[in-house]
Structure formats: structure tokens, C-alpha cells
Amino acid sequence: MKASYETISGDVGVPRQWGRDRTLFAPSVRYISLSKSKTGEVRAQTSDYQEYLDESDDFVVKHGFTEVSWEEDRAIWKCRDGAEQL
Fold first, then answer.
1. How many CB atoms lie within 10 A of CB 68?
2. Rounded distance between C-alpha atoms, residue 16 and residue 74, angstroms
3. Are 20 and 7 in contact (CB under 8 A)?
4. What pLDDT does residue 84 have?
5. What is the mean pLDDT of residues 79-86?
6. Residue 84's closest CA among 30, 47, 36, 14?
7. Dihedral-angle region of residue 10 (phi above 0 means left; psi in -120 to 50 means alpha; beta otherwise)
8. How many helices (H) and strands (E) would you count in the chain?
9. Which of 70, 76, 74, 25 is nearest to 47 (CA)?
């Protein structure tokens, strides 16, 4: 988990270590991203690794954030500019 957090975390403008990150997961990995609408509706979106990378890279570099362990099996992103993602 530590290596994964290190590869995706960083300040605004810092490129992420996607090459290193890719080595930490099975090729068949699936991601589930949770978000909450302004009305409070929780939404789930699934993606494979490349889809996740394509959808996330601009956001994490532009906003910067640090992913930290919330519990052993859960994580919350703490974005440096105040944006939130679960």
C-alpha cells in the first residue's frame, strides 16, 4: 500500500509515477471510483487501469493530492486544493 500511495500522491504540477504504479497491480485490475453529486447521490464508476490513468492523470497533477490510509481496506483522497474524492 505504501508504494501505491507514493506513486499517485504529490503536489500540484508533479507528474505521477505511473510506470512504477502499473507494476503494483495485476493486468486485470478494476478500479471503482465513488463520488457524490451536489444532491447527495453517491455514484460508482468502474474502469480498467488505462481508463483510470486517462481519467485521473490531469486531475491529480492539476489539483495535487495525497492518498492516505483511512483503514486497511479503504482510502480517501485528500486533495490539496479542497476538492474531495472518496
1. 11
2. 21
3. yes
4. 55
5. 55
6. 36
7. left
8. 3, 5
9. 25
Query: N- to C-terminal Cα distance for the chain?
Result: 17
CA atoms within 13 A on the CB side of 33: 14
SS3 for 17-37, per residue?
Answer: CHHHHHCCCCCCCEEEEEEEC
Amino acid at 59: F
pLDDT digits (tens, 9 = 90+) for 19-72: 999 999 999 999 998 888 889 899 999 999 999 999 889 999 999 988 776 655
Predicted TM-score (pTM) of this structure:
0.64
Q: Is there a contact between 43 and 35 (Cβ–Cβ < 8 Å)? A: yes
**Cα distance between residue 44 and residue 35, in whole Å:** 7
Contact criterion met (CB below 8 Å) for 67 and 59:
no
